[in-house]
Design a protein that fits this description.
It contains 14 helices and 13 strands. With 431 residues, the chain is of the alpha/beta class. The chain has a domain at 16-242 and 370-413: Glycosidases (TIM Barrel), CATH 3.20.20.80. Strand 8 and strand 9 form a beta hairpin. The protein is globular.
Length: 431
């Protein structure tokens, strides 16, 4: 194996080490959500609907057992608004009890639960109102947070209101562009793509709608007020997709403006929060006209992203600079879509090395939660495999990969990996 569990730097006391998932991507049959509607629309563009997913709605005890047995001490999962409130104003007591049991189950196994209230999916009724573009969206989300407090009172310490609001805002920009052009969607396989319009709707070229951006910020703040009042011990934050923008010479000013609207405005909104989640996978090289493709000859992942593990260290440094020294960070997502598990180990080792270097330089990082615990549904396809644990799509049998054992051993040893020797195959430069 490329790396052993030690002897790397010791982790700080209380540092969380675990993995992340989201409800829609692993639970299955989330039938009241807007994504379920989208996936199952007759004649729609989604080639592979989520279906049963990993059946974690029923098999969550097994998933938590595996994480604990592997050596992890934290688990980030989301609760599903569409299950809790499938119709406006109609609260499912059974769904609340289900997620309350999950929190209790995590704590009983020695796993610190990090709970996300909204991970991309909304109830269909909320989307029918206009979703985050609806005037009442912040108040509706705050009401949901008040209901969710029943679950969080079971002993949750960390809660994230909204996952990647910057990506959510971009989704709304894409939707608006599709409507403007009379397309059913801008996703792969949609009319836009079939008619050769994909280049015209490159997400990197679109600008998030400022009204949606501000609605997400207001929703986060409204939910934070509610959660702190209902469960005073809670530490409330949100998670941001860190893009690691790297300006080419002469493009510094343009890159800063581009990055502010797509990332930094959401980081700035977290300056009064209890913590912030950092989610980093790769970098984005920028010139004055926008994002550049990966360098010629660069290794890429199953999602087409450049293999660039140093993105993690750069992301936490940038986030810390923007939010300031009083807001601690948790890495809530970091990983690689690959079928080669040795590559996953090498990537993660290099990413953790860059994280350790940032921590040594004073960045206050409180945990690392790998994406993802399971191979799961990646929003239209099961092909990109991010998981530490493989899942048989027919039998749902879970099989931990060597990367899961390797990372779990680090967690058990309370250490980061030893830095790889210069020039070794484990050093992934991404250049």
């Amino acid at each position: 194996m490329a790396h052993e569990a030690g002897p790397g730097p010791a982790l700080p006391e209380g540092f969380l080490m675990g993995a992340s998932t989201s409800a829609h991507q692993i639970e299955g049959n989330n039938v009241s959500s807007d994504w379920w509607t989208l996936e199952n629309r007759p004649g729609g563009f989604v080639a592979e609907p989520s279906g049963d997913a990993a059946d974690s709605f029923h098999r969550w005890p097994q998933d938590m057992d595996l994480l604990r047995e592997l050596g992890f001490d934290a688990y980030r999962f989301s609760i599903e608004w569409a299950r809790i409130e499938p119709r406006r104003g109609m609260i499912s007591r059974a769904a609340l009890e289900h997620y309350r049991a999950m929190v209790r189950g995590a704590l009983e196994r020695g796993l610190t639960p990090v709970v996300t209230l909204h991970h991309f999916t909304s109830p269909q009724w909320f989307s029918d109102l206009g979703g985050w573009a609806a005037p009442e969206a912040p108040d509706l989300f705050a009401d949901y947070a008040r209901t969710a407090a029943e679950i969080l009172r079971e002993g949750v310490r960390y809660v994230a209101t909204i996952n990647e609001p910057n990506i959510m805002a971009l989704m709304y920009a894409l939707k608006a562009h599709a409507v403007e052009h009379g397309w059913d969607s801008v996703a792969p396989g949609s009319r836009a793509a079939r008619e050769g319009g994909a280049a015209a709707v490159d997400p990197a070229a679109l600008e998030p709608d400022s009204a949606v951006v501000q609605a997400l910020v207001r929703a986060h703040r409204a939910a934070t007020v509610v959660l702190k009042a209902e469960v005073p011990h809670l530490r409330v934050g949100w998670t941001v997709a860190n893009q690691v923008y790297q300006a080419e010479p002469g493009a510094e000013e343009a890159t800063a403006a581009y990055a502010w609207l797509r990332e930094d405005v959401f980081l700035e909104a977290a300056r009064e929060d209890d913590w912030i989640g950092v989610q980093a996978y790769t970098r984005h090289r920028m010139d004055v006209d926008g994002a550049l493709p990966p360098p010629a000859g660069a290794e890429t992942t199953l999602t087409g992203w450049e293999v660039y593990p140093q993105a993690l260290g750069e992301a936490v440094r940038h986030t810390a600079r923007v939010v300031g020294p009083h807001v601690p960070l948790i890495v809530t997502e970091n990983g690689i879509a690959t079928e080669d598990d040795e590559q996953r180990i090498a990537y993660t080792a290099a990413a953790l090395t860059s994280l350790g270097e940032a921590m040594n330089d004073g960045v206050d990082v409180r945990g690392y939660l790998h994406w993802s615990a399971l191979d799961n549904y990646e929003w239209g396809t099961y092909r990109p495999t991010f998981g530490l644990i493989a899942v048989d799509r027919t039998t749902f049998v879970r099989t931990p990969k060597e990367s899961a054992r390797w990372l779990g051993a680090l967690s058990r040893a309370r250490r980061l990996p030893a830095p790889p020797a210069p020039g070794s195959a484990a050093v992934l430069s991404g250049r």
